[in-house]
Amino acid sequence: MVKKSGDVQNSTKVMQDKDEVFKEPANRVEDFKFSKKVASVFDDMVSRSVPFYGEMQRMIAEIAADFATPGSVVYDLGCSTGTTMIGMDTMLDKSIKFVGIDESEDMLSKCDEKLKEANFERPYELRNGNLHKGIELENASVVVLCLTLQFVRPLYRDKLIAEIYEQMNPNGALILVEKVLGEDSIFNRLFINYYYNYKRRNNYSEMEISQKREALENVLIPYKLMENREMLLNHKFRYFEVFFKWYNFCGLVAVK
Q1: Tens-binned pLDDT, residue by residue, of the chain (256 aa)
Q2: Could you tell me how far CA 135 lies from the centroid of its own chain?
Q3: Which of 253, 250, 74, 111 lies closest to 179 in space, CA to CA?
Q4: Comparing C-alpha atoms, which of 207, 249, 209, 253 is closest to residue 233?
Q5: Pairwise CA distance, residues 11 & 132, whole Å
Q6: What are the distances in angstroms from CA 114 to CA 8, 42, 60, 119?
Q7: Topology of 22-182+221-255 in CATH?
Q8: Which residues contact residue 59 at a Cβ distance below 8 angstroms, ignoring those fewer than 6 apart?
Q9: Distance (Å, whole) CA 63 – CA 88
Q10: How far apart are CA 50 and CA 132, in angstroms?
């Protein structure tokens, strides 16, 4: 399904800006979903939950600008509310088309709303798509997976990376931002503790931290940084580099 300009109705807006999704105690914590409620607070959620999120977005845009070729297509897989596309828009040639793909219709609605507010002038499409079922790319010079691959079941990750590689233009770049496990258990424990301290500094309560951790337990499945590196190199990407690292978050770029 392709969402075009004008598809978003006012009724899709949720008047909640601050992330309080896990503020109230729950008898049973459900698996995390990118629901309408989450979409309405997602920007606040990631800004308070992902260290240096704004800087990572700037870095994604800078790297994309060096690999995106005029007249090609840049894909944002798991585009959420469109922050990455808005950031890239200021740096990439206006002849480049953006395609955002997300499984959540609520996220796509919020994304379309934000792109209109940003007065997007380049061609773009927003598509509903499940990455577990594969991906179709056309004329792709850059593919972005920003905090997305970690939500793809491990059983399907190799296949998705293989499909991206095979369909990407020569010299194209895959930009990957992920939450990762420490290479050794001692560092993994320390990094997780540092991360929860970060969330506390951003005014999340102990209950919010605990309930979100439980909600994500079976949904967000991180790899180690070296496991991600091995997966990319096994699929014949010629070059690989880490461009960002903060404890258990990292940014990777691989070139076909």
Answers
A1: 333 333 333 333 334 489 888 898 888 899 999 999 999 999 999 999 999 999 999 999 999 999 999 999 999 999 999 999 999 999 999 999 999 999 999 999 999 999 999 999 899 999 999 999 999 999 999 999 999 999 999 999 999 999 999 999 999 999 999 999 999 999 999 999 999 999 999 999 999 999 999 999 999 999 999 999 999 999 999 999 999 999 999 999 999 9
A2: 16
A3: 250
A4: 253
A5: 29
A6: 11, 12, 19, 9
A7: Rossmann fold (3.40.50)
A8: 243, 244, 251
A9: 9
A10: 24
Instruction: Round to whole Å and give the CA distance between 136 and 199.
Output: 37
Token pair for 118 = 């940003």
Integer Cα distance of 1 and 236 in angstroms:
31
Please tell me the distance from the alpha carbon of residue 114 to that of residue 119, in angstroms, as a whole number: 9
Distance between start and end Cα atoms, the chain:
29
- Please state the domain extents for the chain: 22-182+221-255
Token code pair at residue 67: 């690999």
What does DSSP assign to residue 72? -
Contact 127, 99 (CB under 8 A): yes
Helix (H, G, I), strand (E, B) or coil at 90: coil
Mark out the alpha helices in the chain (DSSP H runs). 36-49, 53-67, 83-89, 105-117, 154-167, 185-201, 206-216, 225-234
Sign of CA dihedral 218, 133, 65, 8: negative
The bridge status of strand 97-102 relative to strand 73-77 is: parallel
